[in-house]
């Protein structure tokens, strides 16, 4: 990751952000990922994150930071992390809606809890790389553990959305 940012001796800081916007070449998996973002991302935004836009953006920001942190490990490095961020959204959706019935390609019906694992199996069947999927699942689990599981087990809730993020959206809504 450091190599990407310091290419040709110049600090190219935008590469830390733009790598999350690439979902692969135009293909069936690319279209499928766009549909996943539209369906499950919006479902999260209208469900558990309803009226909590700042918390939703903080979740995505935390996911991006944790994925960049994982990419600092040479064996986990990947030039593009968009697929991993999509898998993080799917994992969190599956944890927030564990009993929702979903259908994959109209062939298989399963509970929402199993969606990330079914998608991982599909990527294995289609020959797509599994590393981005697994990194997204790990990032999603870290977020879910810190925000839901740890506090439910009696631990202190330490992962609050910073006040400046709320203020950004407060002023953004007021001046839009």
Q: TL;DR of this structure?
A:
The chain has 176 residues and is mainly alpha-helical. The chain is built from 8 helices and 2 strands. Helix 3 packs across helix 5 (82-96), helix 4 (53-71) packs across helix 7 and helix 4 packs across helix 8 (163-175).
Report what the structure shows:
It comes from Linum tenue. The chain crosses the membrane at residues 12-36, 57-90, 102-122, 134-151. One of its GO terms (biological process) is response to stress. It is a multi-pass membrane protein. Belongs to the derlin family. The mean pLDDT is 87. A hairpin with a 3-residue loop joins strand 1 and strand 2. The relative contact order is 0.12. It is built from eight helices and two strands, in the order H-H-H-H-H-E-E-H-H-H. With 176 residues, the protein is mostly helical. Helix 4 (53-71) packs across helix 5 (82-96) and helix 5 (82-96) packs parallel to helix 7. 61% of the residues lie in helices and 5% in strands. The radius of gyration is 17 Å and the shape is globular. It starts with a helix and ends with a helix. The protein has a two-stranded antiparallel ribbon with strand order 1-2.
């Amino acid at each position: 990751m450091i190599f990407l940012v310091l290419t040709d001796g110049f600090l190219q800081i935008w590469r830390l952000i733009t790598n999350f916007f690439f979902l692969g070449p135009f293909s069936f998996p690319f279209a499928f990922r766009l549909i996943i973002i539209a369906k499950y991302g919006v479902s999260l935004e209208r469900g558990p994150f309803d009226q909590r836009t700042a918390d939703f953006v903080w979740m995505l920001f935390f996911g991006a930071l944790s994925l960049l942190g994982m990419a600092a490990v040479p064996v986990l490095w990947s030039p593009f992390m968009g697929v991993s961020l999509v898998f993080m959204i799917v994992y969190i959706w599956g944890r927030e809606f564990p009993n929702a019935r979903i259908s994959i390609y109209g062939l298989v019906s399963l509970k929402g809890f199993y969606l990330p694992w079914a998608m991982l199996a599909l990527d294995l069947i289609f020959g797509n790389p599994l590393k981005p999927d697994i990194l997204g699942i790990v990032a999603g689990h870290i977020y879910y553990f810190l925000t839901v599981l740890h506090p439910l087990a009696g631990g202190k809730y330490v992962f609050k959305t910073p006040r400046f993020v709320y203020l950004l959206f407060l002023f953004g809504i007021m001046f839009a």
